[in-house]
Amino acid sequence: MAFGRLSSRPLDAPMSDINVTPLVDVMLVLLVIFMVTAPLLTSAIRLDLPQSEGGESAAVAASVVLVVDAQGTLYLNDQAVTAEALRAHLSELARRNPLTELELRADASVPYGQVVEAMGLAQKAGLTRIGFVAQLKAP
Most buried among 65, 68, 113, 137, using CB within 10 Å? Predict the structure, then answer.
């Protein structure tokens, strides 16, 4: 190659393949976002659960969640119910499967008497397996 001369070699053809690396990067970021936010969407009812030093609860095949919020409203599986409707639902659940576990979530500010009333409704309906849900204390 001499001074002032351009190379006579032909130029490379433009690349016609799709670069999938940015697409994979975006998909992995979205996957991480969904993995982080999915556990936060498990319950729509905000509670201030009492804290305990106990261990994690074991998984049970059949369970329902009964929530007593700070105002004393009852929720069965995130749907507001009256005491009479709750009794009917729990009786039906106990009739279908007497080993169904009731997960009782009560706000820390709820009077103990209301929690006992909810437990009594469950026991009268025939559900004897009642688990209390609490948050673990921060170390």
Answer: 68
